[in-house]
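does this look right to u?? magnesium ion version
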Amino acid sequence: MNILGIESSCDETAAAVYTPDGLQSNIIASQAIHEQYGGVVPELASRAHHKTIWHTVQQALNEGSITLSDIDAVAVTQGPGLMGSLLVGICFAKGLCLSRNIPLVGVNHMDAHIYANFIDDQPEYPLVSLTVSGGHTQLVHVTAPFEHELLGQTRDDAAGEAFDKIGKILGLPYPAGPVIDERSEHGDPSFHDFPQAMLDNDFEFSFSGLKTSVKYFLEDQDNREEFLKNHLDDICASVSHAITEVLVKKLRNAIEHTGVKTVALAGGVSANSMLRRKAEKLAENTGCNLHIPKLAYCTDNAAMIAITGSMMTQQKLYADMDMKPFANLKALERMNVQR
Ligand code: ATP
Ligand code: MG
Ligand code: FE
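got this back:
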């Protein structure tokens, strides 16, 4: 089946075409408007999706050298995400499906982050995914397509959220994750010992204390500006160290607990260089095959929605035309799905 994938859960309007020959196009329109606010403004995000979505879909069809009449199903992010943003993508997808009389597929955005690993690669089941993004941090045991067991997740901030909030404290632009990553490569990870929280718990995370600890650490310095100027790279490296150590230690727990031989990283934070290096070492030490999506498939994109939609159509997991968006992940179960 030829699948058109649409993603609009946060601040990226994205469309992609996936066919039996693989990924044909992957278009992302990022919304620059949020930078000046240091975070995503939901109302502005919905409006920007509304303005951009048709053009983005057209571009995906053009670059995929395919016309709408050759699309067999539309896969769209059902959640989690910002309600207003999700609604734009879902209503647009429903309109397309109604006009062409083709089925609709509702994709769980967090499933899609995991299945981004299958775009260029063929990971074997069972696997453990460390899904680390702007809104989530999860260890997921995947025994077969769409057979997931959530081993644990964060109790407060997500790993990406920690990078972004700490970046704000350090005066870095939003999103700060990539900037902290880049700076960390020039800094000393042992410059300061920031706390690694909840190491006594196997699979759960907590990152909210880390930003407070960075804040107090800076306040303790006599000349904060001067100190930051001289040691920004070292602080970034120490923060990255604290976050990635916790992630990798718990990933090790999950590997040992499940006995899997396949490990995947997923979500925006899987773009992180230090995390990638540590995960590679862990995989080597535990005899696991490690899969990490290409950088373009780590952060939000529609290629991951299209491939997940394609896998769902193989299992006849279609949605009704009254499919609702869901803003949070509490219900991992898909609503309105028919087998
Ligand atoms: P969710 O998927 O949980 O709904 P999201 O879609 O906003 O959240 P993603 O697009 O998967 O999240 O990832 C964005 C996050 O990834 C941001 O917090 C960003 O700072 C972080 N990030 C991106 N690249 C890097 C990097 N190289 N190092 C660390 N963090 C990064
Ligand atoms: Mg984004
Ligand atoms: Fe995401």
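Residues 224-258 form the longest helix (35 residues). idk if thats expected tbh
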